[in-house]
DNA sequence: AACGTGTCCAACCGCTATATA
DNA sequence: GTATATAGCGGTTGGACACGT
């Protein structure tokens, strides 16, 4: 049968963490490293479930976390990444070193949403409010702020935003957060959305698929059956947030964020 | 000072994908 | 092959705090 339960839920603490609990968790991870969250609480002498320990460590105790306010550059980067990725907070967080998905999610909900609304932008569609309400036309394009993200900032991202116009499939943000997590059934919005964003595929990306990586396992009958894993281009590798990996050596490659190749484009 | 309202954010909840017995 | 646990994600909640009246 399956595994044994991860923890005795009846004997676990909930709510805010105490300093002592924090110190126990930090001490244990410093000594043993991040590992099996399932066994960590017991080993560290914590009356918490592993899930709670992981969350506390990831969102608050990790030494590489950056504290403090977001800059305007950060704001613009988050806005553009959100336009690109939707509510994929972990992927967005991956582009902002030291920031957590939870932090960015909170920041989005408390600051950026309002900021976009003040600009007359729908924070979910990134379209002008009138367009988002169904009056959009094919010429309607989202208006990004007059002060675009500085090139110096964007240059730090492992992909480039360019002025060329290439639209591509992307996961849609959930509709105002009312959809269940992982929802992917959003209806297309702003079908002619020109995000004014592009992935510079010519770039040498630090996380580009290794040259030894096999091509798409199942030999596609046409190039359109192939695709580019956006996770790679966003700096996410297997073992991190990206699960775009071959489930088994013989299994199919599953791309969660698939950009179909353009005509004449090859990996 | 007391109260009401709004904001922030840490933590929890529920879900999915994957791993394991 | 099936059932179940784990890891991780996004959505939501509720307490603490700030501010205005």
Automatic annotation (TrEMBL):
Keywords in alphabetical order, please.
Answer: DNA-binding, Nucleus, Repeat, Repressor, Transcription, Transcription regulation
Looking at the keywords, is DNA-binding present?
A: yes
Q: Which InterPro entries match?
A: Homeodomain-like_sf (IPR009057), Myb_dom (IPR017930), Myb_TF_plants (IPR015495), SANT/Myb (IPR001005)
Taxonomic placement? Eukaryota, Viridiplantae, Streptophyta, Embryophyta, Tracheophyta
| Molecular functions (GO terms) | transcription cis-regulatory region binding
Q: Where is the Myb-like domain?
A: 9-61, 62-112
Q: What is this protein called?
A: Uncharacterized protein
Q: Which organism is it from?
A: Triticum aestivum (Wheat)
Question: So which domain of life are we looking at?
Answer: Eukaryota
Chain ranges of the HTH myb-type domain: 9-61, 62-116
